[in-house]
Design goal:
Structural class: alpha/beta
CATH class: Alpha Beta
Low-confidence stretches: none
Number of domains: 1
CATH topology: TIM Barrel
Radius of gyration: 19 Å
Number of helices: 11
Helix content: 25-40%
Largest sheet: 8 strands, parallel
Mean pLDDT: 97
Shape: globular
Bound molecules: (4S)-2,6-dioxohexahydropyrimidine-4-carboxylic acid, zinc ion
Strand content: 15-25%
CATH superfamily: Metal-dependent hydrolases
Distance between the termini: 12 Å
Length: 343
Amino acid sequence: MKTLTLIKPDDWHIHIRNGAVLKTVLPHTAKQFARAIIMPNLKPPVTTVAQALAYRDEILQALPLRSSFTPLMTLYLTAQTAVSEIKKAADSEYIHAFKMYPAGATTNSDAGVANISGIYPLLAALEKNDLPLLIHGEVTDPNCDIFDRERQFVDSTLTKITNNFPNLRIVLEHVTTTEAVDFVINAGSNMAATITPQHLLYNRNALLAGGLRPHYYCLPILKRESHRQSLIKAATSGNPKFFLGTDSAPHLTHTKENACGCAGCYSAHAAIELYAEAFEHAEALDKLEGFASFYGADFYRLPRNTDTISLTKTSWRVPLYYGDEANNITPLKAGEEINWKIL
Ligand code: DOR
Ligand code: ZN
């Protein structure tokens, strides 16, 4: 049987929510990953160190017995964030980054940033304190075509940020376009990017294959095939600027199968297996360990993990949902087979 052994991976971008959903989804991530960067877009958003520490405690309480999973906390950047809070975050061993959402760009982003130059003092404080800024890179102009929002953000906002703050450490999250990939490649070593499994496995046709398919809807939205090819090339290139970040984003099934469905794909149930499929298709399984287990830790200046996980080439069928019948989450590839399985 074909087996693949890797240093245990980390997920550098995930939504695990709180309350009942947290309890459903956390075991999936804790089984596969040693650590994960936890997104702060709760309702209300996690904007202070005190809130992040309380959220961290809730996560630790929800972990399966004997789990050694470590949540890496982030704070949600708003126009009201105090410079003193940035300093406090930098001094905390538990806070690893700030997340910036353009206001209105995605789920729970209302408290995000509407005017980038208005937060320059905060970006200066992040740069000075050497705390990474994690960016949801899409413009929010409703007149901008949804497929162009990332490219436009890179051209306008991201260029401005990197020109003004050349030493700011930035992760451009969930890149989806050739333009974003090229920008990251050409930027300094303080700029990196995460790539999701859905953007490696699917192009935008998946959204409309024989009908409207809400479980493939996430933001940034799936793009055309040429962009997917650029992402595959970047992820499998061995360039340490690109690393694993699932952006697994659970929403209850009825809120996605809805006249106005929520954005987010749930992938935590099979994250490393989904990446293994994508890397295998690209004949680059030998590049998976760097992408999944080394480069993110190096960027965040954390030690690489030493435990290992093994995958076997065994197919298994993904359940139709996780949770109970009334409140559940439909995973990516629900009811379909996946060819790799964690031992
Ligand atoms: O599809 C998405 N879902 N994109 C995001 O940026 C946020 C996420 C969520 O929190 O549901
Ligand atoms: Zn996200």
